[in-house]
Specification:
- By secondary structure, the protein is of the alpha+beta class.
- The protein has a single domain (about 1-100), classed as Immunoglobulin-like.
- Helix content is about 25%, strand content about 50%.
- The protein contains one helix and seven strands; from the N terminus they run αβββββββ.
- The chain has one helix at about 1-25; strands at about 30-35, 40-45, 50-55, 60-65, 70-75, 85-90, 95-100.
- The strands form two sheets. It has a four-stranded antiparallel beta sheet, with no helix packed on it.
- The chain is elongated, with a radius of gyration of 18 Å.
- The termini are far apart.
Length: about 100
């Protein structure tokens, strides 16, 4: 009996975990940062969750995130200043494009 309950519980957790992974893989944030040489990393922050990525040689980036409201932070190299996009809403099964983020000196 204990084995059956444990198997049911583990199956439930596995199904829940897989459905949560679907939300993360299907939703995202993309954009471009200029100038490319001024970018250190790009962060997406929601509550205590955070993800980071680097940009391509053209300045493009993509982050796979769960649906919700995120803050995007571009950590810049000197002499450039960090940039932020607040209240960035990401919906399920969509990638939110923030367009071009220009870093100021």
């Amino acid at each position: 009996m204990k084995k059956t309950i444990a198997t049911i519980c583990l199956s439930g957790f596995a199904i829940f975990g897989l459905s949560s992974m679907k939300d993360i893989a299907a939703s995202g944030i993309s954009g471009k940062v200029t100038p490319v040489e001024g970018v250190e990393t790009v962060w997406a922050i929601k509550g205590t969750d955070s993800l980071k990525t680097t940009v391509s040689t053209e300045g493009a980036f993509t982050l796979e995130v769960a649906p919700g409201t995120w803050k995007l932070v571009v950590a810049a190299k000197a002499p450039y200043r960090n940039a932020e996009v607040k209240e960035l809403v990401v919906t399920a099964d969509n990638t939110t494009d923030v367009g071009e983020i220009k870093l100021d000196k």
